[in-house]
Amino acid sequence: MSSFEPCPCVRRVFFLLVALFGVTQLPAVPASSATTVMPLPAVQQFTTGRLAVTPAFSVELQGSADARLRAGLARLLRQVEARTGLTFAHTPAGGFALKSDAAHASLVIDCAAPGSAVPVLGEDESYTLEVTSTEAVLKAPTILGALHGFATLQQLLQADASGWFFPAVRINDQPRFPWRGLMIDVARHWQPLEVIQRNLDGMALVKLNVLHLHLTEDQGFRIESKTFPRLHELGSDGHYFTQDQIRGLIAYAAERGIRVVPEFDIPGHATSWVTAFPELASAPGPYAIERKWGVFDPVLDPTNPRVYALLDGFLGEMAALFPDAYIHIGGDENNGVQWSANAKIQAFIREHNLKDNAGLHAYFNGKVHAILAQHGKKLIGWDEILHPDLTSGSVVHSWRGPTGLAEATRLGFATILSNGYYIDLNYPTADHYLNDPVPADTRLSPEQQKLVLGGEATIWAEWVTPETIDSRIWPRTAAIAERLWSARDVRDVPDMYRRLALVSRRLEEAGLQHASYLDPALRRLAGDQASPAELAALRAFVDLIEPVKHYQRGNQQPEATQFTPLTGLVDCARADSAPGREFAAQVAMLAGPLSPDPQAANSVLQALVAWKFTTVQLAALAARSPRLQEAQPLLTSLATASAVGQEALSVLLSRQAPVAGWLQTQLSRLDEAAKPHAAAELPVIAPLRLLAAAAAEQDKRRTLSPDAWKQHLLDLAPPPVTP
Amino acid sequence: MSSFEPCPCVRRVFFLLVALFGVTQLPAVPASSATTVMPLPAVQQFTTGRLAVTPAFSVELQGSADARLRAGLARLLRQVEARTGLTFAHTPAGGFALKSDAAHASLVIDCAAPGSAVPVLGEDESYTLEVTSTEAVLKAPTILGALHGFATLQQLLQADASGWFFPAVRINDQPRFPWRGLMIDVARHWQPLEVIQRNLDGMALVKLNVLHLHLTEDQGFRIESKTFPRLHELGSDGHYFTQDQIRGLIAYAAERGIRVVPEFDIPGHATSWVTAFPELASAPGPYAIERKWGVFDPVLDPTNPRVYALLDGFLGEMAALFPDAYIHIGGDENNGVQWSANAKIQAFIREHNLKDNAGLHAYFNGKVHAILAQHGKKLIGWDEILHPDLTSGSVVHSWRGPTGLAEATRLGFATILSNGYYIDLNYPTADHYLNDPVPADTRLSPEQQKLVLGGEATIWAEWVTPETIDSRIWPRTAAIAERLWSARDVRDVPDMYRRLALVSRRLEEAGLQHASYLDPALRRLAGDQASPAELAALRAFVDLIEPVKHYQRGNQQPEATQFTPLTGLVDCARADSAPGREFAAQVAMLAGPLSPDPQAANSVLQALVAWKFTTVQLAALAARSPRLQEAQPLLTSLATASAVGQEALSVLLSRQAPVAGWLQTQLSRLDEAAKPHAAAELPVIAPLRLLAAAAAEQDKRRTLSPDAWKQHLLDLAPPPVTP
User: Fold this and answer.
1) Residue B257, CB half-sphere, CA atoms under 13 Å: how many?
2) Which residue on chain A is closest to B96 by alpha carbon?
């Protein structure tokens, strides 16, 4: 399920509209502006006062206070110490000193019960937090709520000239959906333990509660099997989690209130399975670990009883290893090639009245469902498992489009949404943020709505390495976490971006490397001879570009394999360019229905001139650096963008119509500049098109209604075509 | 041995002289300027031509080619791929494809023998490398030489407009000393496995071959003992290496040609030992892990037979765990308080004719030596173990001063030098670099010289955390590695700094975080409200300051404990400020014997103005940030430095004598600005003093000989007094 998603262009255009004409006209100070917390709590009322955080800050534990709670508290206090530079009181034994007298504690934690030792779906995650000038009181029915309260406190902490403090606030919080996940594909590119651990820390900070590990793929089998060691021995290049590591990871996650759901992808995406056991494939072997990207033929043979013997042994072993009630069996993207070409399999389909390959897949899923049930587990699978014969109680994980979720719930299956949360596709945060599992205008019946358990952000790993993965997950996933936790009507995009910048800092402090990976990567890319000024220009340049969206990178770099080093320009580019967004917002103030704002004109001009300066500085570096030669076409595009923008601005400010054909010339130049190169592209082209259109048509600005004016510009200069 | 070092001021002044008057007058293009390699090879002749590195680059293994060699080669090729973006040929099984036909391989590796599976002291580490336009041939008698050759290749790789290449060169290389170490104190602040691993990668890159792990201290017992689990259970706060981890670490090190030598510090520095076993101390317990820094009283009781029973059991266990022939037993800084106060111990001294506490210590060492010998190990200890009764065959690790090494070798003991390599004390790289174990003017006899095995850089961990430790070790330790590997006459400081900047990049690419830790730390320090311009100013500011030298930080922050968060301004400052060095070099061109250079005057003026700008930008941030309030005095000092410098420059360029008393006024102002605050200081004060003196006395510049002029300036304006 990493290779198809229909019509993201719809979302892109929508986002552009929001960026250009929507959100910039919202009230300047939205209701939630005082808060620094993400996800936004269900109820949050700021009151007057602040609770000072000084070295005398103290904590009292009331109610249930087990080791997990104490560990969570210690993590919170250590984070606060690192950020504030304060040292709180410690016991000689090394722990934080706790008060036993509530009257004098700065923070009182009252946790009613420890809850499940390993979190389970649907457990109470609520908490209340009341901060006054004298104390903070955190109450929760289980440890899960207390841990969420700690995450909130971590985000509430702030400073001004008079010192560090928590603002006075009353919070009453619980999640909208019980299943809020991040799926990490550790198979296509191996992601070692420390990557998973730091991402668990990030998840806890934004109250995500499911880590879904995609453990097997055509390109790798990433879990030790003691029953069938050939699986990881032949399928992993030595890169897999030992069972001890998995146990440690589950404990690490549980300490942070997070479930771990494993995925073993069958019957397709199975090259690594049949590398170990070629006789279980639907066509003769031998097989070797797949090194390329795409959808491949190898698929298990559902007519072979030994397949079920293997699955029974292996899934039984995994069922004992992973405590969660669910096991994900993938089930996606079986292309049917091997099944269709195998006469024995086709005969089996006829003999068993299975109708077609889809029927055979459903038959297979039924057998797997029974195996899992025998081992006490429930089945999850991607969209493709949905079939009239799918055993009830299965969970459908929707990835292909909005219809999957509707169809699954219509048939009575619980669902998890990932369509719209494919963070590997490099779409802007706002796209994901506004993608609601159950939007206000949903056509789902109330019964269907109840079957929507939540959603998962998914990071498929064709193009990520341990070095870059954090930058592909964060901070965007924090906005998805808010979508799944906070109320449906929390949709204020500018406020989301404001808080996202803050939570990005907290994520960095928690150990994520989404920001810090960049400068070393740029130094390596620029080479030893780059001057500090050239490095700064390169930084400005990569801040302006974005990786291509959707599955375009595969088209741009068709020769890439698992061995290709991911240390190029595009690996330094990140989705959702902040300067790109800022530029679009400034252009919106120039091209919107109101007459051009001089300050916005000045900002836009400054940006355009800076781009030109960047291209001049980098041209020399790119000419002598073999690694930056791939940047040349994009530098040319940026220079074009700067020139077109300056011309458009000049026309706009002249308040005179340009010569005939001017707009078409500019749009053609921008079409050229919009083309991706080196798998990267310039997000500033789309707003420049609108700027040019606004300049060309400014005489119509006053004659058209605001809505008609917007539509007119979009008709004249629709965003560049992206897949 | 982390709390005393006499007279570093001598070295500081020496460095200043070198920086100001020495090296800037060396030939502009030193002999080694073409090379990018550090340590400088024993023999290295660049020839004409280059070996292109393209995707067709291929490797052939001749001679012995075991798994360790292949793994080392794979690491090299992966590094080259990451840096160049090229993808070399792989086998379907996932390894790099190797050529079997030497005629067509780009790189031929001919390793005669695998050598010891775990490296041993004195093993042949030599290699030859010949690169021509058509191939590179690396020959080595053992794998150690081959691994060193890989490190050389990694550093030789470079690029220009026509692509990536190795320059044609003939290298014939071997180390000057067989013991080239890095000691990491994992006890005072715990350093987890990944810190050690990435530092092993850094060590391999600069051909260091001994990792000395300081495993026990007053503040922590960091190794699992299965025989006496109370030791790590009660002594570590849960932070210790398991024996499995140690075995993995030894294998990781051996793969990189590095020995692992453990240290268990006895009889002093033993608080964590007696926390577990108070009855073995020389005064009644109970004891708890020490949280403060310094020298403490707890010491094992050498008169108690149970001490030797414990040591026999524990050291026997460790002897089986660590394959190296040597075990370090510390032996330093027993303050004698408990021994002197204990009548039974004093009686024992008299009864056994041990004379005094030193005699008792020697008695203890003799017993420990016998225990180690029984377990097949040799004893190493710090300076203090040196005693007429020290058992022959012991190795003395010299830390207290230059006399220790002379005295130990005079008595026939082999020695390792760490005096002058205390990288935790924040001295400039050049200080360490010019500190030769056997300098040209040595008074050691040839026999004594043979007893000098080498040296070790030491990072004591009072003030380092996993976040900052790399920045305290690297890149300075690369220069120590060169001192221990390269010929004695390799002492070209500017060329060292030139190559250090390159090796620093390679170290970063190997995974060290000495550079990348900084920006996240500054973002945390600056707080959420800092603007990008303020962050840039903060970066410029911390690049200009240095942590205080020697043991001054303990004086500046006497309240600090193991719990104090090390996330302040001083933790962002790094030793050997590059802008500080650059400023000193420019001042030297103004204040030297020649008449002032206009370009240098311009550079100095630009720097002075930039400092003022930095202080203005940061004043506002510091005023509203509780964490940066500690920066205020240093900002004031920097503003003073800028003002004095501008005035001095103006006087100098006026070619007129200033008013009477001017120099004393400026020096007083600089005395004030030289004072450390927040445990940091400004390295630019010393050159400013000389600039002021040169300006005040410029009429003497032409009347005095160059040497007399230098001396005159230093007499007038000696560097600020530091300990």
Assistant:
1) 32
2) A563
Q: Backbone phi, then psi, for B467, in 5-degree steps?
A: -70, -40
Cβ contact (<8 Å) for A625 and B159?
yes
pLDDT confidence tier of residue B33, bands split at 50, 70 and 90: very low
Catalytic residues of B, by residue number, are: 333
Name every residue whose Cβ is closer than 8 Å to that of residue B670 and which is 6 or more positions away in sequence.
Answer: B640, B641, B644, B685, B688, B689, B692, B720
Lowest mean pLDDT among A428-432, B23-27, B232-236: B23-27
Whether chain B has a CB inside 8 Å of the CB on A527: the answer is yes
Closest CA to B107 of B67, B56, B71, B145: B56
Contact B83, B92 (CB under 8 A): no
Give the closest of B86, B516, B524 to A83, CB-based: B524
Name the residue with higher pLDDT: B166 or A12: B166
Instruction: Please tell me the predicted confidence (pLDDT) of residue A592.
Output: 82
Q: What is the mean pLDDT of chain B?
A: 93
Residue B18: CA count within 13 A, CB half-sphere: 17
In whole angstroms, give the CA distance from residue B26 to residue B32: 13
**Residue A722: per-residue pLDDT:** 62
Cβ atoms B677, B634 nearer than 8 A: yes
Residues of chain B contacting A194 with CB distance shorter than 8 Å:
194
What is the average per-residue pLDDT within B450-470? 98
A291/B626 Cβ within 8 A: no
* Subunit contact A82:B567, Cβ cutoff 8 A: yes
The pLDDT value recorded for residue B722 is: 62
**Which of the 8 DSSP states describes residue B510?**
T
Does B598 contact chain A (CB < 8 Å)? Answer: no
Q: Which helix (H) or strand (E) holds B130?
A: strand B127-131
| pTM of the predicted model as reported, rounded to 2 decimal places | 0.95
Q: Does B160 touch chain A (CB under 8 A)?
A: yes
DSSP state, residue A435: -
Q: Is A392 on the interface with B (CB under 8 A)?
A: no
| CA separation for the pair A630, A645 (Å, rounded) | 24
CA–CA distances in Å: residue B264 to residues A25, B187, B615: 68, 10, 47
Interchain pair A509, B515: CB under 8 A:
no
Contact criterion met (CB below 8 Å) for A214 and A241: no
Give the model's confidence band at B122: pLDDT under 50 very low, under 70 low, under 90 confident, else very high: very high
Which residues in B lie closer than 8 A to residue A288 (C-beta atoms)?
A: 92-93
- Which residues on B lie below 8 Å from A519 (Cβ)? 515-516, 519
Domains of chain B are 43-173 (3.30.379.10), 179-509 (3.20.20.80), 517-716 (no CATH)
Contacting A residues, span 305-344, partner chain B, CB-CB under 8 Å: none
Residue B146 to residues B98, B130, B165, B174, B376: CA-CA distances in angstroms? Answer: 16, 13, 20, 11, 29
Choice between B11 and B119, residue whose per-residue pLDDT is larger = B119
- CB contact A671 to B (< 8 Å): no
Over residues A529-538, the mean pLDDT reads 95
Residues 450 through 479 of chain A touching chain B, CB cutoff 8 Å: none
Give the per-residue pLDDT at B102: 58
Q: Is A86 on the interface with B (CB under 8 A)?
A: yes
Cβ atoms of A455 and A177 within 8 Å: the answer is yes
Element (H, E) at A129: strand A127-131
Long-range contacts of B367-373 (CB under 8 A, 24+ apart): B367/B302, B367/B308, B368/B266, B368/B311, B368/B315, B368/B329, B369/B393, B369/B394, B371/B308, B371/B311, B371/B312, B371/B315, B371/B316, B372/B315, B372/B319, B372/B327, B372/B329
Average pLDDT value for chain A: 93
Residues 226-255 of chain B with CB under 8 A from chain A are 237
Does the pLDDT at position B17 exceed 50? no
Q: Kindly indicate whether the ipTM for this predicted assembly is greater than 0.90, answering yes or no.
A: yes
